[in-house]
């Protein structure tokens, strides 16, 4: 367990507008410290939904990798990525490549997959000069704040993700599936209930229907768990959206989301979802050496615009299968 002084520091840093913060001092060996308190940290993530550990003094990618491996024995290899990442080590990546002046709105990592991370591990090597926080929002709270009829529809129908892979925008086919072999990609799609269609230019279009609401596999909480707003056309900067539609047409956008029956989702609904997220968002600016653990099912996360160099290492752990957290869609 954490020592009494560390527990008091954590309890004292449970502020309504910030993630749970554990402030340390005098840590000489971050890897050894994490190994000693691993179970307590993981228990805190279950209790609070996330925890930011400050004062470890993580110095380089090798040390961060060692800390991640203490916290989770099996790090996931990313599949179906929507944007490219730098690979540091197997299962350890940079944050997603995304323009620094644009936000990445709230989402649950890989929530469109049949197998997704139960926990996200993040560590900061270089903090930006301004902005760039990994903000979070509690998904049961978000769910409770949404209109009942909208929740009911998404609970009954789920949501639909459409993707058009190309070599110009977002993750390439090879980056998303880990191979360029068509037969292997088709086999993966069939196994994961992804409809697919090869395009004459070699591109790939896919459709996959997923649940929007799940039950947490440990606590049983009902959680708003999806990327409906994040990957929808109406969340894009208006100029970017107009450019992409001009380039690829409305049906060929790199990604878009719909109701589970295929109906478009109105701009007003996407605005509402993002407003509810914003009303329940908490944030703490990164400092170099920080470690953050996020329960990926209970807690949505975002990345805010920033200025200056920002280097965050990411790992995905504790793989969870969708079938372990839901009732079948109608």
UniProtKB/TrEMBL annotation:
Coiled coil: none annotated. Its cofactor is Fe(2+). One of its GO terms (biological process) is antibiotic biosynthetic process. GO terms for molecular function: oxidoreductase activity. Residues 38-316 form the TauD/TfdA-like domain. Keywords: Antibiotic biosynthesis, Oxidoreductase. SUPFAM superfamilies: Clavaminate synthase-like. PANTHER family: GAMMA-BUTYROBETAINE HYDROXYLASE-RELATED (PTHR10696), TAUD_TFDA-LIKE DOMAIN-CONTAINING PROTEIN (PTHR10696:SF56). This is TauD/TfdA-like domain-containing protein. The lineage of its organism: Bacteria, Bacillati, Chloroflexota, Ktedonobacteria, Ktedonobacterales.
């Amino acid at each position: 367990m954490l020592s009494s002084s560390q527990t008091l520091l954590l309890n004292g840093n449970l502020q309504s507008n910030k993630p749970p913060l554990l402030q340390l001092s005098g840590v000489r060996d971050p890897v050894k410290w994490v190994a000693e308190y691993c179970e307590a940290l993981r228990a805190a993530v279950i209790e609070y939904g996330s925890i930011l550990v400050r004062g470890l003094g993580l110095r380089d990618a090798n040390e961060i990798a060692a800390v991640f491996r203490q916290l989770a024995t099996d790090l996931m290899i990313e599949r179906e990525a929507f944007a490219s990442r730098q690979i540091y080590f197997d299962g350890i990546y940079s944050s997603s490549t995304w323009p620094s002046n644009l936000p990445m709105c709230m989402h649950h990592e890989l929530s469109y997959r049949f197998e997704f991370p139960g926990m996200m591990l993040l560590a900061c090597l270089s903090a930006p000069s301004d902005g760039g926080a990994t903000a979070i929002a509690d998904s049961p709270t978000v769910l409770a704040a949404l209109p009942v009829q909208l929740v009911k529809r998404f609970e009954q129908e789920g949501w639909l993700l459409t993707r058009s892979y190309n070599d110009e925008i977002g993750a390439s086919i090879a980056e998303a599936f880990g191979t360029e072999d068509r037969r292997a990609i088709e086999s993966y799609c069939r196994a994961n209930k992804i409809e697919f269609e090869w395009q004459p230019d070699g591109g790939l279009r896919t459709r996959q229907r997923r649940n929007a609401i799940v039950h947490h596999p440990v606590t049983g909480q009902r959680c708003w768990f999806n990327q409906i707003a994040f990957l929808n056309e109406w969340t894009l900067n208006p100029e970017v959206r107009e450019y992409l539609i001009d380039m690829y047409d409305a049906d060929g956008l790199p990604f878009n989301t719909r109701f589970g029956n295929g109906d478009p989702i109105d701009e007003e609904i996407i605005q509402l979802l993002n407003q509810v997220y914003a009303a329940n968002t908490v944030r703490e600016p990164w400092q170099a050496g920080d470690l953050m653990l996020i329960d990926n099912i209970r807690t949505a996360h975002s990345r805010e615009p920033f200025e200056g160099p920002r280097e965050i290492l990411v790992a995905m752990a504790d793989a969870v299968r969708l079938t372990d957290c839901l009732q079948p869609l109608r």
